[in-house]
Amino acid sequence: MDKIFLFDALREATDEEMQMDKSVFVLGEDIGHYGGSYKVTKDLHIKYGDIRVLDTPIAENSFMGMAIGAAMTGLRPVVEGMNMSFLLLAFNQISNNAGMLRYTSGGNFKIPLVIRGPGGVGKQLGAEHSQRLEAYFQAIPGLKIVACSTPYNAKGLLKSAIRDNNPVIFFEHVLLYNLKGDIPKNEYFLPLDKAELVRCGSDVTIVTYSRMRYHVLQATDILVKQGYDPEVIDLISLKPIDIISIVESLKKTHRLLIVEECMKTGGIAAELIAQVNDNYFDLLDAPMIRLSSQDIPTPYNGTLEKATVVQPEQVIDAVQKLLS
Fold it and tell me: What is the spatial distance between Cα 95 and Cα 90, in angstroms, rounded to a whole number?
C-alpha cells in the first residue's frame, strides 16, 4: 500500500488510463503546462503532449460541446472544470447533449465522457466558488453522478468512470485534495453505483457523502463514547442512489439521518427521503431527519460560512433526538 494525497490518486488514475488507452484525453482550463488548479494533471502534458492534455480557452460551453462531439466519435474525454460551478455555463451541453444523445440516437452513439473537478463549500471562496451542484445535475436523465471522499475511492472510481460508456459527473471536494490515504499498488476499480459501509452499527443509519463523511465520523466518535452505536454509509453514488444498501441498514436500525452539504430544498437528501417514504416507510420507527446546508448563497465571512454548513455538533444532537 502507498499513502498518497487525494489529488495524486486522481492523477494516478488519469495517468494509468491515458497510458492504457490512447483514446483517453484531458481538456480544460490551465490543465496543461500549469497542471490544473489542484495539480491533478501536473506534468501529464510532458508525457502525453499538448493535444492529449489540452488547454482550452475560458469558454465552458464551447469545450464541453467539443468533448461531447469527441465522445460521439470514439474518444474518451475527461473534462476538468476549474471549479464545478463554472460548468453551469455548459449546462445546455451537459443536459441536452451529453445526457440525451445515447437515447435520442437510438443507441447509435455512446457518450464515454467524464466531467470532473472541485466543488463544495471551501474556506472563504465566496458564493460563486462555493456552490453545491449535485441537485442541479441529479435531475438530468442519462447522467451518472459520483462523489469521491477518500484517495482510495477517488482512484478506483475515476478509473471506472473513464471506462464507462455513459457521461459521468465526478464530484471532488475542494477541501479534500490534501487528504492522505492508502492506495493498493495493484490496479483496482470500484463500482459507480454502490455505497460504502463506513461503520457498522445497530442504533441509527447515518447516510452522508463527500466531505460530510468526516463531519459524521467526528460526531460518531463522540456518540460511541456516549453509548450510541451508529451505522455510517457513504453514498458515493448520487445517481443512481444505492437504495438497497440503505434499506439493508434500515432493517437493523429502523432510524435514518441524512447529512449533506447540498442545499435542503431539492437536495440529495430530499430525493432519498422520497424514495424511502415511497417504498420502505414500514421499516421506520421514527421520522427521518435531514441535515443540509442553508438555502442561501454561501457567505464569504468565515463565521457565517461555517454557520451555513452542517457541523458535527448538529449530527450528535440529531442522533440523540432520534434515539430519545
Answer: 9
pLDDT at position 173 is 96
Residue 131's pLDDT is what? 87
Q: What is the pLDDT confidence band of residue 313, given thresholds at 50, 70 and 90?
A: very high
- The kind and range of the H/E element at 292 are strand 289-293
What average pLDDT does range 297-316 have in this prediction? 95
| Cα-based angle 149, 309, 255 (whole degrees, multiple of 5) | 75
Tens digits of per-residue pLDDT, 80-99? 999 998 989 999 999 999 99
Residue 134 host element (H or E): helix 134-138
Q: How many CB atoms lie within 10 A of CB 209?
A: 29
pLDDT at 1 over 90: no
Q: In the CATH hierarchy, which top-level class contains the domain 2-183?
A: alpha beta
> Identical fold at 2-183 and 196-322?
yes
DSSP-derived 3-state class of residue 5? strand
Q: What is the pLDDT of residue 213?
A: 98
Q: Which residues are catalytic?
A: 60, 129
Output the pTM of the full model. 0.95
Q: Decide if 254 contacts 233 (C-beta within 8 A).
A: no
How many DSSP H helices and E strands does the chain contain? 12, 14
- Compare 213 and 125 and report the one with higher pLDDT: 213
Question: HEC states along 225-288?
Answer: HCCCCEEEEECCEEECECHHHHHHHHHHHCCEEEEEEEECCCCHHHHHHHHHHHHCHHHCCCCC
Which amino acid is present at 249? S
Distance CA 271, CA 247 (A): 15
Contact call for residues 251 and 220 (beta carbons, < 8 A): no
CATH of domain 196-322: 3.40.50.920
Ranges of each domain in the chain: 2-183, 196-322
Cβ neighbours for 226, distance < 8 A, ≥ 6 positions apart: none
What is the distance between the alpha carbons of residues 203 and 250, in angstroms, rounded to a whole number?
A: 10
Would you say 202 and 223 are in contact if contact means Cβ atoms under 8 Å apart?
no
